[in-house]
Design brief:
Number of helices: 25
Structural class: alpha/beta
Distance between the termini: 56 Å
Strand order of the largest sheet: 8-9-10-11-12-13-14-15
Length: 909
């Protein structure tokens, strides 16, 4: 911690001469009492006799008084001390003063008193002595410093949708482990973290019963009693440590029994707010606030709610009144914290309408999205942060998911300190919400595979992750040279090394800490958990990322100014000057980072005397990072030559690309070797939401060994196509035309404006500009379903139908970011965006209209029965139904606009 004033006078009281310590604290103040207990443990461990009392009495023994400024306890026990506390005003601040044989620890508030006691305990642990004279003060920079735990799983539960995980011993046995909770809460308070977030889709039906909705409870009576007991234990123990328990939930999700009672879905993005759902949710929140002490709420208005207007109404008329009713029932006026998550909503508008109704509001937004990519954030996402931080509330930075860091160890103090500084300077934020570094969906365990089969605890493995973020959330302005010394000492103690070896371990963390951030921000498709970076990327994704839908705003927001691969290739061909961070720069840097990380960790190894197994796992991670960097760099080198070929039509460019692809396979084979016995998986999300580099359906493709055959097939395809090019007379390969898809018959149950033939000359909206001019062969037997433009823009697109066999509905999305066109499915903002297999583009650039944007084709799969499709507002084409059992081959049809460059990814298929 940073100390505004630090003065040690005289000699320290050693444990050889001072045998009796009396700690005076208020037994009715849980936080001061807890701080006194931790201080007593430290003193007792040194052989001292420690007593506790509620009142200061004269004594020759050493006395420590712990209390909160302004309380009756403090006034009574510090009345004879000449202590100036006029500057003790900052939340959670404290000062420690010595007067003769008495050490006074005074907190601005209850948590400040706790932190003061723990600070003295830490100093005694470090020095082995009680200071005879100490005069210091300190306070945290960030208002909230929190960590989160996902009460969720890597897979969907049977019969349930995304985020739907009732609290039960069968699903979450760790949730009922009091020793585990105590260990985690102790870790938090040791790091001076003051908020614990529990993430779950709909937790209320596991934690409260409602008189008006008894059927909504979705756990057994036995499990409900266990939930009550453990949640009460958690909130009480957290309160002792100055920690708010903040329950997160998604909107609008209801319990499965509630949904079945009313014959509705548990979650439906297109559903309007209904009186029953609003009343049920409001009363659930009231019961939660009334029942559990020291709790707050984190509200995610996006993903499962209909419109921005609904967001505002839901927050102001359901959530806030629910909290206020809970306060009334308790007879309290202190408002529990409510945090509005900016994800997939208009948070500034929500806050504008809500602040007159409720004051203790916070905002939260993802720092680099769902990854860690830069300490120089900006772009459109940066503007959202700045807008939110300008409101009359505290803005929280959410270090979220870390999809690009899974599963290797990450602990770069340098990167993390720079990041926290950027949160203040670039975004104007003053609070931190921290995800686990890895294995969020599989908490409390890591992905490490051990010889005994025992699972490692994430909080143990990633100790440096929590410590670094918390340290800089307390004070981001620490001197860098002093920080190097601090971490050298910490790492030396951890691994039993000298300071030189510890410094090499720190270097390995710092060097490897740049690899994943730099790689993703320059080459990634998305910062979200749709992409697992450390499994790699296909050449087709590097040379034609648009086919995979690059997440809007990602590259501008999550890194410094620079060029993407396609931009770089075009400028190289046109001999134009480059700007900012370039692909060639990044691959050179990540390979160098990998090299230096391995050199440093290997150099440290002979000096390690403690925790050798963990050190060897850390060392293996450094070597894995290097193998990944080398693999990825070779792939980028090949991609640059392939893109050059798209301009030069010179086959020698492809010849030059081949050795780089072959070399990339060698590095990936090393990566497989390094991980096959050390990791259970790369990514903890193991559902169809993950699409890049390849789909994670049914828990597949989650290891490097599983991915290797795909990369080998990619190489074989490239070799084959290269030989075909060489043997062709004109240097071209005749592309195969797609075959028409087989239509399927369905019975339409909703009124429509009729159907139309999907063929050239058809005006899909009845207007000249909507005339079809080019259509992929696959679509030419289909019958489109007509909709009015105005109705689609104002009300969305809705279709009910009945089918006797499985079908796929063919939907055409306009390739445009204008709001008058419906945006395609986005797993970044809609976790249910692949529920019908609709997330991926099946046919890219597959249709041209006379004066409207070209069309990309997605398909939605529906099983036999009565079904419906509800899409949001904006123009979209419903092109008909096809048999779901036929083979559908994804491809880029290539109907592009004049002056555009055709996709070159066909070389890898």
């Amino acid at each position: 911690m940073r100390y505004l004033s630090l003065l040690f006078l005289g000699l320290c009281t050693t444990f050889a001469t001072a045998q009796n310590i009396n700690i005076v604290r208020d037994a009715n103040a849980p936080r001061a009492k807890y701080g006194a207990e931790k201080l007593a443990e430290t003193l007792s461990a040194k052989g001292l006799k420690v007593t506790s009392s509620d009142k200061l009495k004269k004594s020759k023994d050493k006395i420590i008084v712990i209390g909160e400024k302004g309380t009756d306890f403090w006034k009574q026990n510090a009345k004879n001390a000449k202590i100036d506390d006029s500057k003790l005003t900052k939340k959670e601040g404290f000062q420690i003063r010595t007067q003769k044989n008495i050490i006074y620890i005074e907190g601005t508030d209850a948590t400040g008193a706790l932190y003061g006691a723990m600070e003295l305990a830490d100093r005694i642990k470090t020095s082995g002595e009680i200071p005879s004279e100490i005069n210091i003060e300190d306070s945290p920079e960030m208002v909230l410093r929190g960590a989160c735990i996902g009460v969720q799983k890597p897979f969907y539960l049977p019969g349930r949708d995304v985020y739907e995980y009732p609290y039960t011993p069968a699903t979450f046995p760790w949730f009922y482990d009091k020793k585990l909770w105590t260990k985690y809460l102790d870790m938090m308070v040791e790091n001076r973290m003051n908020s614990l977030y529990l993430w779950n889709g709909h937790p209320f039906a596991s934690l409260v019963k409602l008189k008006d909705y008894p059927f909504a409870l979705e756990v057994s009576e036995e499990d409900f009693k266990k939930n009550e007991e453990i949640y009460n234990y958690l909130t009480v123990e957290a309160n002792k440590r100055g920690i708010w328990v903040i329950q997160m939930f998604y909107n609008i999700i209801v319990s499965k029994p509630f949904a079945e009672h009313y014959n509705i879905k548990t979650q439906d993005r297109s559903r309007p707010i209904t009186p029953e759902i609003a009343d049920y949710t409001k009363k659930s929140i009231t019961a939660f606030i009334e029942k559990y002490p020291n709790v707050g709420l984190l509200v995610c208005l996006g993903e499962a709610i209909n419109t921005i207007d609904d967001d505002v109404e839901w927050f102001n008329k359901t959530i806030i009144p629910g909290v206020q009713d809970g306060m009334k029932a308790l007879g309290k006026t202190e408002e529990p914290p409510i945090i509005v998550r900016a994800h997939d909503t208009d948070a500034p508008l929500v806050m504008e309408k809500a602040l007159p109704l409720y004051k203790n509001l916070y905002t939260m937004h993802k720092y680099n999205g769902e990854s860690l990519t830069t300490y120089t954030p900006g772009g459109p996402w940066g503007e959202i942060h700045k807008k939110l931080s300008s409101l009359k509330s505290v803005h929280i930075e959410n270090v979220h998911i870390l999809a690009n860091l899974e599963p290797f160890r990450y602990g770069s103090p340098d990167f993390i300190q720079k990041t926290v500084k950027a949160m203040h300077t670039a975004h104007g934020a003053n609070a931190l919400h921290l995800y686990p570094q890895a294995s969020y969906w599989d908490w409390p365990y890591t992905a490490d595979k051990t010889k005994t089969g025992e699972r490692l605890l994430e909080m143990d493995r990633d100790w440096i992750w929590y410590k670094a973020w918390a340290r800089y959330a307390w004070d981001s302005k620490r001197d860098r040279n002093e920080e190097i010394k601090f971490w050298d000492n910490d790492l030396a103690a951890k691994f039993g090394t000298d300071l030189e070896a510890a410094n090499n371990i720190q270097k390995a963390y710092d060097e490897s800490g740049e690899i994943a951030p730099k790689t993703l921000r320059r080459f990634g498709i998305t910062e979200g958990n749709r992409q697992t970076l450390l499994l790699g990327m296909f050449e087709s994704q590097l040379v034609n990322p648009a086919k995979w839908r690059v997440y809007p705003g990602f590259h501008e927001s999550c890194g410094p100014v620079g060029e993407l691969l396609l931009e770089y290739a075009k400028k190289e061909w046109n001999k134009e000057p480059h700007v900012g961070e370039t692909p060639t720069q990044i691959i050179a840097e990540i390979t160098q980072h990998g090299k230096l990380a391995v050199e440093a960790i290997d150099k440290a190894e002979p000096k390690v005397t403690k925790d050798k197994e963990e050190f060897l796992r850390l060392k293996n991670d450094m070597h894995a990072y290097k193998a990944f960097a080398d693999f990825f760099s070779e792939k980028v080198k090949a991609a640059m030559l392939v893109l050059r070929y798209s301009y030069s039509n010179d086959i020698s460019d492809l010849d030059k690309a081949l050795p780089h692809l072959e070399e990339s396979i060698k590095h990936y084979e090393l990566l497989v070797s390094l991980t096959k016995d050390s990791y259970l998986y790369a990514n903890s999300m193991q559902t169809a939401q993950r699409r890049i580099p390849i789909g994670g359906d049914d828990g597949n493709n989650k290891t490097w060994a599983e991915l290797l055959p795909h990369y080998e097939r990619e190489l074989a395809n490239f070799k084959r196509n290269l030989e075909l090019l060489k043997s062709s007379k004109d240097g071209k390969i005749a592309t195969k035309e797609g075959k028409p898809w087989l239509p399927a018959e369905v019975t339409l149950l909703s009124e429509t404006k009729g159907t139309y033939a999907v063929k050239n000359g058809t005006k899909v909206y009845g207007t000249p500009i909507s005339e079809l001019t080019k259509i992929a062969p696959e679509l030419q037997n289909l019958k489109g379903i007509a909709f009015e433009e105005t109705a689609q823009n104002e009300n969305g697109t809705h279709l009910k139908f009945k089918n006797t066999k499985a079908v796929k509905l063919v939907v055409g999305y306009f390739n445009s970011d204008q709001k008058r066109f419906l945006f395609p499915p986005s797993l970044e903002t809609d976790a249910a965006g692949n529920a019908h297999g609709q997330a991926e583009v099946i046919l890219a650039s597959a249709m041209n209209l006379k004066e409207l944007p070209r069309i990309n084709i997605h398909t939605y799969t529906f099983q036999p029965g009565e079904n419906k499709l509800d899409l949001g507002k904006g123009r979209v084409l419903i092109l008909g139904f096809i048999d779901a059992n036929q083979t559908v081959t994804p491809r880029d049809v290539g109907y592009i606009d004049a002056g555009e460059k055709g996709a070159i990814d066909w070389l890898f298929y």
